[in-house]
Amino acid sequence: MAEHQNTSIVRALFDASARQDVDGVLNLLADDVVFHIPGSSPIAGTYRGKDEALAFWGRLAQLSDAPPQSELLHALTDGESTAVAVWKTRASRKGQILEDVLGYIFELRDGKIASARNLAADPEAADRFWSA
Prior knowledge:
The protein is α+β, with helices and mostly antiparallel strands. Helix content is 33%, strand content 43%.
């Protein structure tokens, strides 16, 4: 059975991100995309539009010793407009290491990611890491 378009889009996003393919990432986002990163760290907030989404990823790079590494574990969809990604991440910052399982709940529209809400298995650890 062929993979659903929604999970294919999620996989393509993670693949482009892993390759640091900015154009590939941007092509998968709606112009008015909204990313919501919960918490109280310097990366927390709501990012609206492609420019702010890029600024978010730039902020991650600026705060990290090296680009965070992600491994997509699962991509699921309701078959309509929602997809969920679960992945492991590893980031280093100021000699500290963060390893966590994260999730995104994506809303898709016209074959593009319209919104994404980040979830962390340990949100307090993520806040401490990015705030250190």
